[in-house]
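Case study 2.
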Amino acid sequence: MKTFPKGGVHPPENKKASGSAIEVLPLPKSVRIHLSQHLGAPAEPIVAKGDMVKAGQLIAKSTGFISANIHSPVSGIVQKIEPAPDSSGYKRPAIFIDVQGDEWMETIDRSPNLIKFPDLNSEEIITRIGRMGIVGLGGATFPSHVKITVPKGKKAEILIINGVECEPYLTSDHRLMLEKGEEILVGTQLLMKALRVNKAVIGIESNKPDAISHLSTLCARYPDIRVETLQVKYPQGGEKQLIKAITGREVPSGRLPIDVGAVVHNVGTAFAVYEAITKNKPLFERIVTVTGKSMERTANYLVRIGTPVTELIEATGGMPEDTGKVINGGPMMGQALPLLDVPVTKGTSGIVLMPVTESNRRTTMNCIRCSRCNSVCAMGLEPYFLMSLGEAKRWDDMEQARVMDCMECGSCSYTCPSGRPLLDYIRLGKNSVNRLIRSRSK
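Prediction:
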């Protein structure tokens, strides 16, 4: 079985929710929709306090090339527009809507009928994806219409659909592949048409045999799409690792996947593209895994964007007494929520409740020069060295040591026997180096 050659770890999978079918979470009484829930420039609101809105209605427009439209996930009245804490704990502009009923825009096709071949060309598909606010649903939330706009002088040769879901605990992509397989394949065809490629591969790790079997069977009717079974190894779902595993091509330092002819999209994104193009449905809801070792039950919910995280936890039996942290995303790349009164966003793939025994940081000790962090780094970096440079605030040296190549997978911190906060300092360095790079470009 194929995999990437450098580094990687094997954390316990804890995929407790893999057998939980997707459930529709009841509508909340109110939602909070942040204007910065995608990579790039925040959207600009086009509604005001007191306005009536419907589900699917545009409420905030993109403000730059790398930005995304935002649509109302509910019908109701705009209560206010003001800054409120997001999952980072910092206050960001948000639109508050009091929910009244569930009236959708008339332009959205709510029928369950599968539509396979909409008569649109490449440019029309890209335009509609942008208009519908589709972003990468694997966690990065990069605007999808930008990703499939191939720069002049470049050529896409292969589309890779990421069904790996290597992050422990999370199962939303797994369930989506099982329950919406045909829609994902149609979405994949639409992305292929937008990119003008005639080949697509869906990469899935071997710990999801049911999804592999299901999609492989469906692919018999889609000759240009095939399923590739991959070895279980974290972080297999990283773009560059997935490209290397499937194509053997290596994306050079500082370059993008398109530089080796590849474009990668998540299975959730492919499904969202299907709904956007064939159903005229903007991205205003997504699948979210809610799970934890001590929870009464686990679930995969279809959730409206803006729903408070507390409602997901309550619907799944409430917070266990031994909860130490609530993580937005998975335990490897996700971040602990500083407060629970925050909403689901386009990038929320899971809510993981970690017990106290697994939440506390270990005591930081001196580096013992074991080089484990080096051996597990999937990017071939030297995490111990990058941390040392970060501690000394040597940002120029961190740039030279390729800190910007770090994908923040957390494998180094996970494997360090001395409990050193390697990733914390690497993230600090990346932010500082990024500011230096931007200052030089002015």
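The chain is about 30% helix and 20% strand.
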